[in-house]
Amino acid sequence: MAGALPLGDPAPPDGRLPTHIRTDELTDFGVYLHVPFCRVRCGYCDFNTYTATELRGTRQDQYADTVLQEIALARVVLAEAGTQRPAKTVFFGGGTPTLLPAGDLVRMLDGVRGAFGLADDAEITVEANPDTVTDRVVDELAAAGVTRLSVGMQSAVPHVLAALDRTHTPANVGTAVAAAKNAGLDVSVDLIYGAPGESIDDWRASLEAALAYAPDHISAYALIIEEGTKLHRQIRAGQVPAPDDDLQADMYELADDLLAGGGYEWYEVSNWSRGSGHRSRHNLAYWRGFDWWGFGPGAHSHIGGLRWWNVKHPAAYAQRLSLGDSPAAGRETPDAQQRILERVLLETRIREGMAVSDLPSSDARRSVAGLVADGLVDGASAVKGRVVLTRSGRLLADAVVRALTV
């Protein structure tokens, strides 16, 4: 289970937004649907997920009905806040969404469609563990309008998968990718690098395997050790080594080289796609500060500058909705300084970068020249008024953000 929720302010039981929060048709709207169930908890995972023994009476077969109750609540709340907008993106994340029957995922998607409508070109993504994907599952999802399957590959090397507590075999990834392609879905594969005992040659093997599947999109994330996880405890006890920053940097550069050579372009620090048409529009909506409603226990939402988050445990989530109350645990409206810091943090991560004129101060704008000189920001883009990270800048993105928020 993930760490504590933010503090924030109390959220009203009816879930209504403050009167000054208004929606408008010029801001894209997306939907996130959290499915918090996993067969086994991976040692590195800090997400709000639960295995069967942690559910305390909550039933997976009732989960879709519970989410539909929150969707009905959201429809009323958003109707009162202004313009109703169709969802341009829908993302089923987790956890392992495909632990639920495909029919349950379809019912939740139909609930979104009925409450808000879906844009004609809506991107609808389902995350999946490779060993939960079958032809029947993806055919049912595709028939319901799902457009994209995101497969949690993580590695092609058995001992690396074991270090991460992943339960699937490398062969299952190819089966899942083939099933999705046969159903006409776009395919993304997710990789993690820097696991205990993973060598640069292991990482090369995983990248080459991912490229051989010819997906439309590849994500590659450095392993981060989150406090409270099994892996954090193992490292603290000296049972396994902590990730090596220099090795992870080498792994990132190798990924960028091999993926670029395979026809993929980076569009966000950890994401590559076959052209702009295969980027994750849902994740881009987060990085660009659009609106979204997150459904499910622990899910976060953002509408018109207001943020809120739901209670974490599925039992508490279900109980609140059964009483007709909002599952929101707290909310906040970031001040101007917090908003600009977040904007710099997010916009500089994407390929288009951020306008120099939008930086928060004259000192920050003057710092761009130094970042160009240090090789962290692209000089040609800076001349055109954009802060765009070089590959070295992507490796040191946090340092760039600190320099740009003085």
Report on the architecture of this protein.
- With 406 residues, this protein is α/β, with parallel strands linked by helices.
- The chain folds into two domains: 29-287, Aldolase class I (TIM Barrel, Alpha-Beta Barrel), CATH 3.20.20; 335-406, no CATH class.
- The protein has helices at residues 63-80, 102-116, 135-143, 158-163, 170-182, 200-212, 230-236, 245-261, 281-287, 314-322, 336-347, 362-373, 379-383, 391-395, 397-404, and strands at 29-35, 87-94, 118-128, 148-154, 186-193, 217-222, 265-268, 271-273, 291-295, 300-303, 306-310, 328-332, 354-355, 386-387.
- Helix 6 (200-212) runs parallel beside helix 8.
- The two termini are 35 Å apart.
- The mean pLDDT is 95.
> Structural class per helix/strand content?
alpha/beta
Oligomer: single chain
Q: Tell me the span between the first and last alpha carbons.
A: 35 Å
The topology string of helices and strands comes to EHEHEHEHHEHEHHEEHEEEHEHEHHEHH
Low-confidence regions: none
Function: Probably acts as a heme chaperone, transferring heme to an unknown acceptor. Binds one molecule of heme per monomer, possibly covalently. Binds 1 [4Fe-4S] cluster. The cluster is coordinated with 3 cysteines and an exchangeable S-adenosyl-L-methionine.
InterPro entries: Aldolase_TIM, Coproporphyrinogen-III_oxidase, Elp3/MiaA/NifB-like_rSAM, HemW-like, rSAM, rSAM_sf
Subcellular location: Cytoplasm
GO molecular function, one term: coproporphyrinogen dehydrogenase activity
